[in-house]
Amino acid sequence: MSNMDIALKDMMVIDGAIGAAVVDYNSGMALGMLGSSKALDLQIAAAGNTEVVRAKMRTIDQLGINEEIEDILITLSNQYHVIRPMTGRKSKGLFLYLALDRGRANLAMARHRLKGIEEDLEV
After folding, report:
1. Strand blocks (E) in the chain
2. Per DSSP, what are the bridge partners of residue 17?
3. C-alpha distances in angstroms, 11 versus 4, 60, 103?
4. Cβ atoms of residues 33 and 46 within 8 Å
5. What one-character DSSP code corresponds to residue 93?
6. Origin, by domain of life (predicted)?
7. What is the pLDDT of residues 18-70, one digit of tens each?
8. Out of 1.20.1050.80, 3.30.450.30, 3.40.190.10, 3.90.550.10, which CATH number does the structure's domain 3-120 have?
């Protein structure tokens, strides 16, 4: 089993997880996806969230903020969508995407676990 497969499975065991992906934000393509919801199209989510990441990175650059984005949180009425740009030398240009059922998820724990998964993932 590849490191990517392990990371995706680790993301999906986070309480409330309904979909997970590792995405290249230069191309908008998902390198790997895993999900348990037919209502969430991970291909569309990967492409759409690529635009979110690009826009935020561009804004931070224009503002002259010299910091890394830890994560981007999108809160819906029934879901959380967490986007975590990867910061490793070999994983620049990628982000982790995790969709959570808001009623079953612990957001703080999910963010903590996602950080650990990012640190262990080598692409």
Report:
1. 17-24, 29-35, 72-75, 79-85, 94-101
2. 100
3. 11, 27, 17
4. yes
5. T
6. Bacteria
7. 999 999 999 999 999 999 778 899 999 999 999 999 999 999 999 999 999 99
8. 3.30.450.30
Give the torsion through C-alpha atoms of 49, 8, 103, 70, to 10 deg: -50
Which two tokens mark 88?
């490793």
Q: Side chain identity at 82, as an amino acid letter?
A: V
Q: How many residues can be counted in the chain?
A: 123
Tokens describing residue 2: 């590849």
